[in-house]
Amino acid sequence: MDTKRTTFHAKFLPYMLLLPQLVITLVFFIWPAGQAVKSSFEREDPFGLATTFVGLAHYRKLLSDPTYLDAMARTAVFAVSVTALSMLLGLAFAAAVDRLARSAKFYTTLLVWPYAVAPVVAGVLWWFLFNTSTGLMPFVLERFGIRWDHDLNGTHAMILIIVAAAWKQISYNFLFFLAGLQSVPQALMEAAAIDGSGPVKRFFTISLPLLSPTTFFLFIINVNYTMFDTFPIVDATTVGGPAQATTTLVYKVYQDGYLGLNLGSSSAQSVLLMLIVMVLTFVQFRYVERRVQY
Where are its TM segments located (predicted)? Predict the structure, then answer.
């Protein structure tokens, strides 16, 4: 059987097509990352007029600093909570919408809207809802005997940023889970129904295993989201307080670098955060992907 092949005689055309993206990656990603690594080995005055090479001094100080280790622990709690909450709710909403026939598009549109909201706007929105003076949620919680005050209670403040960050990410997870559920072969579902399996059993024995590639992808995306993209939410709701109770690693980079003008330590924190995300991603691909059924 003869197959037609298209040959491009312009040898440099593929490289020219890739050039804009390569330039953007170099200027906005590779170059800043390289500068952060370089700055992490230096001590620089706030005005950038003088630098001194200090080697690994910033890294040794950070790894022995209780405040940084506390921020790392808080980030772990925050990342696990946001990832679990947003993925579970996204899956639940996707499963509910997938069972609808007539109004599925309407509910899909409603559930996608929060993703269009900027993170800082999402933070301000939930700050207003939980405002101790004028917010609705403290009034409702007080009816159940809970006196809400995220300005003084660190646990309440952590719950606030977890809820705000998860709410922002639910729409993204919902879209992918819904697409995955709609791609499940109906023949399998019908065969299971004929065998007497109910909706719940069909979901856990057929749909959920077939969603493992989507779940694995979303797991990586959500972990990266909690590590980097939640800075505006923290800044708009709690500003890292009270008493550093909601200071995550990415927000501590901002505090020490932009507010404290400790550029060397801030750069070292950026490098460590990048290494943590790289290690987590490697572990996920190395060990978690084995359980994925393609």
Answer: 12-31, 71-94, 106-129, 157-181, 202-221, 268-288
Residues 6+ apart with CB under 8 A from 199: 99
Rounded mean pLDDT, 47-60:
86
For residues 61 and 43, the answer to whether their CB atoms sit within 8 Å is no
Q: What predicted TM-score, i.e. pTM, was given to this entire model?
A: 0.89
Helix runs in 130-198, H state only? 136-143, 154-182, 186-194
What separation, in Å, do the N-terminal and C-terminal C-alpha atoms of the chain show? 31
* List of residues 6+ apart from 256 with CB closer than 8 A: 262, 265, 266, 269
pLDDT > 70: what percent of the chain? 95
Task: Please name the residues in contact with 146: beta carbons below 8 A apart, sequence gap of 6 or more.
Answer: none
d(C-alpha 185, C-alpha 207), whole Å: 9
Complete domains list, the chain, with CATH: 52-287 (1.10.3720.10)
Axis crossing angle, helix 66-98 with helix 154-182, rounded to the nearest 10:
40
- Amino acid at position 273, single letter: L
The set of residues, in sequence order, having a beta carbon less than 8 Å from that of 280 and lying 6+ positions away, is 223
Residue 184 one-letter amino acid: V
pLDDT at 1 over 60: no
- Cβ burial of 253 (10 Å; 0-12, 13-18, 19+) is buried
Average pLDDT, the chain: 89
Pull the structure tokens for residue 131: 């405002």
∠ at Cα 166 (135, 112), nearest 5°?
A: 95
Tokens of 70: 């506390």
pLDDT digits (tens, 9 = 90+) for 69-95: 999 999 999 999 999 999 999 999 999
